[in-house]
Amino acid sequence: QQVGLTPIVLHGAGPQLDEELAAAGIEKQTIDGLRVTSAPALGIVRRVFQQQNLRLVEALQAMDTRATSVLSGVFSARYLDRERYGMVGKVERVDLAPIEASLRAGSIPVLA
């Protein structure tokens, strides 16, 4: 922002997710390089991504950087192959409105 650019941040949470799933007794499984996500794991996935998103936004704000958490309403997806990959999806549409609203407010959108 100090140089006139406002980035859009899209983050993951792989290591934190691995740790939380292991603590819940859910073994990590990958097929074709994709993490298989079971229905029981999905709640943990959502929680971990939300936690990491808020941590990142808070860290940016602590450095006097305007940042906005954008956790929903951006990506529309369909299941990739539910039998093979579980709850894993493929993004089919991106709604830019929440991202653009953050940018118009001079804030970095942080997406999970």
UniProtKB/TrEMBL annotation:
<keyword id="KW-0808">Transferase</keyword>
<dbReference type="InterPro" id="IPR001048">
    <property type="entry name" value="Asp/Glu/Uridylate_kinase"/>
</dbReference>
<dbReference type="GO" id="GO:0006526">
    <property type="term" value="P:L-arginine biosynthetic process"/>
</dbReference>
<protein>
    <submittedName>
        <fullName>Acetylglutamate kinase</fullName>
    </submittedName>
</protein>
<dbReference type="GO" id="GO:0004042">
    <property type="term" value="F:L-glutamate N-acetyltransferase activity"/>
</dbReference>
<dbReference type="InterPro" id="IPR036393">
    <property type="entry name" value="AceGlu_kinase-like_sf"/>
</dbReference>
<dbReference type="Pfam" id="PF00696">
    <property type="entry name" value="AA_kinase"/>
</dbReference>
<dbReference type="GO" id="GO:0016301">
    <property type="term" value="F:kinase activity"/>
</dbReference>
<keyword id="KW-0418">Kinase</keyword>
<feature type="domain" description="Aspartate/glutamate/uridylate kinase">
    <location>
        <begin position="4"/>
        <end position="111"/>
    </location>
</feature>
